[in-house]
Design a protein that fits this description.
Blueprint (H helix, E strand, L loop, with lengths): L1 H5 L5 E2 H7 L5 H13 L3 E6 L5 E6 L1 H19 L1 H4 L2
Antiparallel strand pairs: 1-3, 2-3
């Protein structure tokens, strides 16, 4: 969900992810963002200002994954009934 929400956007802030993915806890969002950054799918930019501002964007590797994710989303929509039985 994090990567899909970033697709087509230059950057998103932490709060914007919380709004876009309402069922995610702050702890899960933080840990997932850290893992995606460690896996080189996201770039995290912390701006030295008050209040602190942190922005996330897709790396080239993250952008290259998006067609695969879109295909998986399409497949899951077609086979939703079968998968959820």
């Amino acid at each position: 969900m994090i990567l899909v929400n970033l697709e087509g956007k230059e950057k998103l802030r932490y709060k914007e992810f919380l709004i876009a993915i309402p069922d995610i806890s702050q702890k899960m969002l933080s840990s997932t963002l850290k893992q995606l950054e460690a896996d080189h799918f996201l770039i995290r930019v912390a701006h030295a200002e008050i209040p602190p501002r942190v922005e996330y964007s897709l790396t080239e590797m993250g952008k290259s994954l998006m067609p695969v994710l879109q295909m998986m989303i399409g497949w899951s929509q077609v086979h939703f009934e079968e998968v959820t039985k």
